[in-house]
Amino acid sequence: MDPARATPHAPNLTVPSTVLVHLNGQLLPHDRAAVSPFDRGFLFGDGLYEGLRAFSTGTPHHPHRIIGLNRHIRRFQRGLDLCGIHYNAALLAPITEHLLAANHLHDAFVYWQVTRGTPDLTSGPVRSRVMTSPHPPTVFAYLSPLPPLDLTSALPAAKRAGCQRDLRWHLGHIKSISLLGNVIPAIAAHQAVAADEALLIRAMPDGRRLLGEGTYTNVAVVRGNTVRTPTLTATSILPGVTREIMLELDPAIREDEITEDELRTADEVLLIGTTTMITAVTHLDGHPVGNARPGPHAHRLMRLLCDALRENREDIPTPTPAPAPHGADA
Ligand SMILES: Cc1ncc(COP(=O)(O)O)c(C=O)c1O
């Protein structure tokens, strides 16, 4: 296998034939978990998701942690509130613990999805854009196993990327389950240059072409000793949890508008994300980036991240729950 294409997250892990998933308060074998075809997530993509990573710590009392758990809860809650989907995202923390225990996993990708739910069929047309009666949201979570993280000596992985036009909406901060705008460029870049990730370029009204993010990662570009990552607002991108962590760990990283030309002439191009961690782009549209190997900043930032994870420094404190209004149910 071409070492430039090796990734630490493409293992030959055996996924058990039955996975226990969480659906609407129940723990179920995945093949018994059923959602109505009238669920708004299925019909409209009317829902949000989060992708997290649990990793084993090697300590008996806390055998695993979830990277940036409270940051994920905060981002999810903001998205749910913005969309008017009524759900307390903090409930997903104990649900995830339950799932990890039930599936006997410490190292896993963790997926949460909450949709606006399934309308009551007697309350109006099922495809009514506006919900006419209140429905409970649909809450789904599953895990898939990942190899353990080696936080003392993990190296940045290496991937190929290709540029594609960003044709998505302007609400990139909402982690919508409607991912067609990400799937189409990912497939196109894969078909064009065998890319593992598509880097999305937005054509701006003033004629500039700006780098936004990948289809499942944030991006940083390096020139000399300057590391820059696109601003959240210039092209409307996801406030990635890992991006947020890296900006705190290395305050020298600049948030900036980055043109396609700057991307194409960078010394290093980095992908940043929950399972991606810090990954070097070694080829962009088939051309080598730098010397086509993970460069010094990829190594440095990967080390910063792994050290913070090992020392439990990457998260924010658990928010204290707001007191229940007088007389309200707990
Ligand atoms: C479009 C997009 N950008 C960036 C990211 C990285 O975000 P995070 O660091 O929270 O995983 C993701 C993750 O799924 C994503 O889908």
Description:
Residues 1-11 have low confidence and may be disordered. Strands 7, 8, 9, 10, 11, 12, 13, 14 and 15 form a 9-stranded mixed β-sheet that branches. The chain has a 6-stranded antiparallel β-sheet with strand order 2-1-6-5-3-4. The protein has helices at residues 40-44, 69-83, 92-102, 180-193, 241-249, 260-264, 296-310, and strands at residues 20-23, 26-29, 47-56, 64-66, 108-115, 138-145, 157-165, 197-203, 209-214, 218-223, 226-230, 254-256, 268-273, 277-284, 287-288. The chain contains 7 helices and 15 strands. The chain folds into 2 domains: 18-145, Aminotransferase class 4, branched-chain amino acid transferase, N-terminal domain (D-amino Acid Aminotransferase, Chain A, domain 1), CATH 3.30.470.10; 157-310, D-amino Acid Aminotransferase, subunit A, domain 2 (D-amino Acid Aminotransferase, Chain A, domain 2, Alpha-Beta Barrel). A hairpin with a 7-residue loop joins strand 3 and strand 4. The chain is of the alpha+beta class. The protein binds pyridoxal-5'-phosphate. Residues 51, 182, 213, 215-218, 238, 240-243, 273-274 line the site of pyridoxal-5'-phosphate (PLP).
| Count of the domains | 2
**Element order, helices and strands?**
EEHEEHHEEEHEEEEHEHEEEH
Mean pLDDT: 93
> Strand fraction band?
25-35%
Termini distance?
55 Å
Bound molecules: pyridoxal-5'-phosphate
Q: What is the CATH architecture annotation of the largest domain?
A: Alpha-Beta Barrel
Assign the CATH topology of the largest domain.
Answer: D-amino Acid Aminotransferase, Chain A, domain 2
Q: Largest sheet at a glance? A: 9 strands, mixed
Going by helix content, strand content and strand pairing, the class is alpha+beta
By CATH, the superfamily of the largest domain comes out as D-amino Acid Aminotransferase, subunit A, domain 2
Strand elements, count: 15
Radius of gyration: 21 Å
How much helix, percentage-wise, in residues?
10-25%
The CATH class of the largest domain is identified as Alpha Beta
